[in-house]
Amino acid sequence: MNNRNFSYTIMEALRGLVKNRFMSAASVLTLASCLFMFSASFCIVANLNYLLYQVEGMMSIVVFLDNDISTEDLDSLLEQVYEIPHITEISFVSSQQALEKFREGLDESAHMLDGLEMDNPLQASLELDIDNINNWDTVEGYLYEIDGGVIEINQNGRSTAVALTAINNVLRVISSMIIIGLGIISMVIILNTIRIAVNNRRIEINIMKYVGATDAFIRGPFIMEGLIIGLLGALVPLGIIYMLYGPAMDVLNERLPVMDFYFRSHTDILQLLSPLLLIIGILIGIMGSSISIRRYLNV
Is the pLDDT of residue 297 over 60? Predict the structure, then answer.
């Protein structure tokens, strides 16, 4: 396509959008609504995944040991634990170290533990980091088969990780259903917008065909209309996310008890979301216009 034909395609597409401005605006707004729902779901799921990643980094299986365990029994136990698959790191915490950790966690109330050094009620333990939450039951099964010195096995953080995973999966299903439904509605409205444009220019199109215009030349402006609708439909929700995401995350960080967890940064979200929205919006616009032309334009 030379520069002259490209300029013609752009100008005719803009003229068609202005002439059918109400249907064009409806197409843009419907697509923007669909993509905004997608954007909101994307932000929620992305942050849940990020929180889950942080939780998995904090998760561990704690194996409490008998304080009377001998050095030989401890070495034997460690040898058996090292052979268990899916364990990425093993840390030994003595009863004295456990007491110090407990004291640090109490901050100003740490004085309540004064005097326990000589009669420490806390057990020594092994803290085991697991490569994936799905392997916890397997590791726990191996641990229960080990004899000697093990009093109790505790899973730190698993309930939080399981809850986040369940919420994440439900949100993915719900958001996918909403996006598919709104995507179909957007496609139908874009299809009708292009159909009206084709009907309004049918005489002109017949003349163009009579004088030898190619199919691609005739289709070009309508494809461009769909592309512009798709682009605008993507830019609107992207602008809304750009303005609202930062303040929304600031409010959540201030008001929600998320401990030491962090949300995705404004920059990270935009870098991930921008190309995705633009590609989806343009593809929906082009597909809608292409289907409309095939159905209603006999070229």
Answer: no
Measured at the CA of 22, the angle between CA 213 and CA 15, to 5 degrees, comes to 30
Q: Give DSSP secondary structure letters for 3-60.
A: HHHHHHHHHHHHHHHHHTHHHHHHHHHHHHHHHHHHHHHHHHHHHHHHHHHHHHHH-E
- Which of 106, 125, 156 is at the close of a domain? 156
Q: At what angle do helices 215-255 and 3-19 cross, to 10 degrees?
A: 60
Residues 195 and 147 both lie in one domain: no
> How many CB atoms lie under 10 A from the CB of residue 230?
28
Question: Among the three residues 156, 180, 214, which one is the final residue of a domain in this structure?
Answer: 156
Please, which residues have CB within 8 angstroms of residue 273's CB and are 6 or more apart in sequence?
39, 42, 43, 238, 241
Instruction: Give 154's DSSP letter.
Output: E
Q: Give the angle 72-77-78 at the CA atoms, nearest 5°.
A: 100
pLDDT at 63: 80
Structural domain of residue 9, as residue ranges? Answer: 3-55+161-296
The CA distance from 221 to 203, in Å, is 16
pLDDT of residue 240: 93
For residue 91, give the 3-state DSSP assignment.
Answer: strand
Average pLDDT over residues 31-49: 84
Collapse the DSSP code of 177 into the 3-class scheme (helix H, G, I; strand E, B; otherwise coil) and give the result.
Answer: helix
**How is residue 6 written in tokens?**
């490209």
Residue 154 φ then ψ, to 5°: -125, 140
Question: What Å distances lie between residue 257 and 20, 244, 247, 261, 262, CA to CA?
Answer: 50, 21, 17, 9, 11
State the Cα–Cα distance between residues 99 and 101, nearest whole angstrom.
Answer: 5
